[in-house]
Specification:
Low-confidence stretches: 1-13
Shape: rod-shaped
Helix content: 25-40%
Strand order of the largest sheet: 1-2
Radius of gyration: 26 Å
Largest sheet: 2 strands, antiparallel
Strand content: 25-35%
Number of helices: 3
Structural class: alpha+beta
């Protein structure tokens, strides 16, 4: 018999993998914009900042109608179905709540990267000013 993970451990592993995939996806969305005397560098995705810095999302209270299928014996199923497939509907309300997203820094440089970036900038400026490679 093969080893089978519990539902909880599978769910936790899935959320960690999803997090890693999102960060990898963000690394593929890096953009830059050069202006007069400035360089803007980052991602154009709206959730990139909250992934990097963390934060709190306030979710407002809401109500919605949920649709189920009721069997011929009168028992209501425990799975949601589309409105057109349902024969039983029930309103559900949820209070306001907060989602806390921890900081997951994905954009930045190390000391080694800083040194390399400075060397690249110096070479560029040297070529631009003096027309000779260094």
């Amino acid at each position: 018999m093969a080893y089978r993970s519990s539902y909880r451990s599978v769910g936790q592993a899935t959320s960690v993998l999803q997090c890693v995939r999102e960060v990898a996806y963000l690394k593929n969305t890096l953009r830059y914009q050069v202006g007069a005397g400035e360089l803007a560098f980052g991602s154009n995705r709206p959730y990139a900042a909250i992934q990097h810095f963390g934060g709190v999302i306030d979710v407002a209270a809401r109500s919605q109608q949920n649709y189920f299928r009721q069997g011929s014996n009168g028992e209501v199923g425990n799975r949601f179905v589309r409105k057109r497939s349902s024969n039983f509907a029930q309103w559900a309300s949820m209070g306001a709540y907060k989602i806390r997203i921890p900081s997951r820094p994905w954009l930045g440089t190390s000391e080694v990267d800083d040194s390399e970036l400075q060397m690249i900038a110096l070479r560029y400026l040297s070529r631009a000013l003096y027309g000779e490679p260094t």
